[in-house]
Amino acid sequence: MDGLESKHHLNGSMFTKNPLLDPEEFRRQGYMVIDFLADYYRNVEKYPVRSQVKPGYLRERLPESAPSDPEPIETILEDVQNEIIPGLTHWQSPNHFAYFPSSASIAGILGETLAAGFDVVGFNWMSSPAATELETIVMDWLAQMLSLPKSFMFAGNGGGVLLGTTCEAILTTIVAARDRVLHRIGRESIHKLVVYGSDQTHCSFHKSAKIAGIHPNNIRKIKTTKSHAFGLAPESFRLAIEEDLELGLVPLYLCATVGTTSTAAIDPLGPLCDVAKDYRIWVHIDAAYAGNACICPEFRQYIDGVEKADSFSFNAHKWFFTTLDCCCLWVKDPNALVKALSTSPEYLRNKATDSKQVVDYKDWQIALSRRFRALKLWLVLRSYGASNIRNFIRKHVDMAVLFQGLVAKDERFEIVVPRFFAVVCFRVSPAAILKQLYSSCHQHCPKSVGDDSVNDVNQELLESINAGGRMYMTHSVVDGAFVIRFAVGASLTERRHVISAWLIVQEHAHAILGRKNCPCSSAPCEREASSVSSSLPIHSILNVIGPC
Amino acid sequence: MDGLESKHHLNGSMFTKNPLLDPEEFRRQGYMVIDFLADYYRNVEKYPVRSQVKPGYLRERLPESAPSDPEPIETILEDVQNEIIPGLTHWQSPNHFAYFPSSASIAGILGETLAAGFDVVGFNWMSSPAATELETIVMDWLAQMLSLPKSFMFAGNGGGVLLGTTCEAILTTIVAARDRVLHRIGRESIHKLVVYGSDQTHCSFHKSAKIAGIHPNNIRKIKTTKSHAFGLAPESFRLAIEEDLELGLVPLYLCATVGTTSTAAIDPLGPLCDVAKDYRIWVHIDAAYAGNACICPEFRQYIDGVEKADSFSFNAHKWFFTTLDCCCLWVKDPNALVKALSTSPEYLRNKATDSKQVVDYKDWQIALSRRFRALKLWLVLRSYGASNIRNFIRKHVDMAVLFQGLVAKDERFEIVVPRFFAVVCFRVSPAAILKQLYSSCHQHCPKSVGDDSVNDVNQELLESINAGGRMYMTHSVVDGAFVIRFAVGASLTERRHVISAWLIVQEHAHAILGRKNCPCSSAPCEREASSVSSSLPIHSILNVIGPC
């Protein structure tokens, strides 16, 4: 027995136990990890949603070097509980309303487990035919659920592929579009290419364009306005193109968004595609979040116009109960991807590829290696079924509507932009702050409150709520206004969590507003000084109070 | 009961069962998936290693649309067994000797399961501090195990990051190097940048460079020779640079390889870095496969010189018992990455980032979102311990040595290039083919055999072995010679599998060589015609026979 192997008598036959993949040991440890996670879901509601650790907390708790000898799974799981869990921000908590959701599910997690268990490297068809074929099938199923036109499906000479993230979807399509144009105008003109998005487009777009070698000065962030609900106006797009053409630049690519990160705003796809067509611009639709909802007929209208686009992507890991990472990308012209991204080294040559009867997904993506991501999507689709998945999404939207109604009923708050899908953008209203400030003022103070002061109150409110740990939301700034985003989508969230979230918001707002008084009266400041949390920057309070 | 929720009486209290993440349902299904995988490992040896399905097999077996209603896990797992497993190429089979290994382990798979279970999106520190902090710690641990200089570690102002694949490691570092130089010489000069690799460098390098906007004509594949064991000669590198400088081009980046894909060849890092330094060229070391072995002191010499490089990466998912994907990248100057790749949208602003006390890994990689990959590496390091991991690798190398010895003893075969690590490149020798062809010839035929004929025999041999399903190897072509690669590294492989693999090779070689005769005698062709497999292209046999 050399520490690596030990002999066991199993099922009457001599069996050499392999410490890496022994079936019985896998079963024993596997059950423990499953139990651990089951307990985690039972308890996740009890943990502070946003982690409360300080930078560097973990280095203090862990050894400086990897252990030389094996440690039992029992000890490791204890450490996961005691050292790791306090440092997690609990995306699976029913009280997680931050960012966009990361909605796990039993089927998604176990699909990932199966894929990790097989651990096949599906770069081409031959390296694991099932990985490629299941992916083409699942992508066609999803295309049907989204009512994408046939031109995005394999039967229509388009096709879908699973990538990690939206950034990869944008990067691969920019590179495909780029090489198509450079083939025409010459490689040396790369610095003339221009890509377009709005000031609401996700930062992945700017990052991808920069990675692809687009001149940073040629990445347009076209201004949107509140009057257009922060959607990109086709006339602004055309104007930007015309300006660039006058400068001798070459318009290349538009990234249109359905469901922006700040406010879930929607760019008008049809009219934008019509403009793009006039200039032969590749249109990619980034529906990372909202694309999920578009499997429901009542939301499908938001991607009307997709039939005119070149590519479309959404993140199943956001709101399709499929764990990170799982970005679904469809293109009308897979050849454009393949031309830009294919590699054919001798060591990957094989009969199937030579026959041209198969898809080799390595040529549709950045990397060569790829996980068997289709498995988890397939498990999710089958475990819940299309109608239930639609209903899960509807339930989340309904909860957002509930929250919106609660906000609307409280005159201290306002909905800043129209709610789309399950994201509510709200804030304490300027009027409420004004009223609170001067309600106890018996002088003849000029009654006003600046934008910065309103923003500071809302920022203070959000930080106070998040620091409390009972729920977690994030923010954005649109048109100069700091807005709090309430995004419903965690798999465990029920109506009771939404109602309780609203009570928490009210409670913190009450406390914060209660400390705001017209500074002409110094009394409240003194009276409440001791109860003001030290985490509240005094300047923000002063900002709110303003000149009196 | 609306199909989404059902009421259950559990632990005496009314409990609403959530179909997405109900703890008990997760446990029930989780155990079943663990059992399924345990059985898979018990049986994996019985499956044909390379899948034997035909293109399109799965579309015939699966429905055309996603199911509308839920299906039980029992049915789904049955379908995984009956429909998916036949379409898998079994990378975890002990008889998988193809490509480079994809070595799964209990700890790796369960680490992935835990990460999927938490499903945190660790783009920045705040979004889940433990994900970031564990990654910095584990990367420092690994750096120690590799004896990387402190300049690659966080304490030395460098640092490590976990990416998906080597392609991402190369792309991020090319982009960092690119933007550093373009900042100096102007964005318009992007088409002048030149990147260097050898004709043995992995295709990921060419792909990454193209994605980054490097002019395809400026991607150098410097020729290597058998006399240098296919390593990149520093003098050839310098010559290529000088030629480019004369053309007014700008040398940017070298991708040096330790353990090439074709033959596991090693570029001489120290001398190459010395050349690169003269021209301020960024040196990245791609040790995707062999880097794993360099945790053993006896192999550490192969990365001597790494201290002079700018970045270094290896794939833990190849040979570190960590499931796909898990590429470990270290850089000396993280700021170069951050400058090229950072994004700071308002919706991600937070106090921790503003304090500059934390690492936000989104700025070290292509994508924004990222999985909690450090968890599986941590589980692997702790579950097995550093010394055992070293021993696992040594055991694989020992088995490759065993195979090499078996090949060497059979005079029909030759080792084409020196064995490095656990890859043996061999073939049926030209001499053996010559001897076999003319052994029964009683005429005065001119005795010769062309290179193509030798390659055809070996290609035929490999295809015959792989089609048999009992083992799987892949090939490469070096210096015009078709070589069969025998790569040991699957977690379940033991000495008996290697010996049995050799017997299979001999058996197929015997059959194939037995059918080769000098064409001056037509008898054997007629005699054996019926026993020649229809899968053997007749032209390849004729090629071997050649003019008589």
TrEMBL record, chains A, B:
The protein's required cofactors: pyridoxal 5'-phosphate
GO molecular function: carboxy-lyase activity; pyridoxal phosphate binding
GO CC term, one of those recorded: cytoplasm
Pfam family, one: Pyridoxal_deC
PROSITE patterns assigned: DDC_GAD_HDC_YDC
InterPro entries found in the cross-reference section: Aromatic_deC (IPR010977), PyrdxlP-dep_de-COase (IPR002129), PyrdxlP-dep_Trfase (IPR015424), PyrdxlP-dep_Trfase_major (IPR015421), PyrdxlP-dep_Trfase_small (IPR015422), Pyridoxal-P_BS (IPR021115)
Record's keyword terms, sorted: Decarboxylase, Lyase, Pyridoxal phosphate
Record bears the keyword Metal-binding: no
Modified residues (N6-(pyridoxal phosphate)lysine): 318
Any one biological process term the GO annotation gives: amino acid metabolic process
Family of the protein in this entry: Belongs to the group II decarboxylase family.
Protein name from the UniProt record: Tyrosine decarboxylase
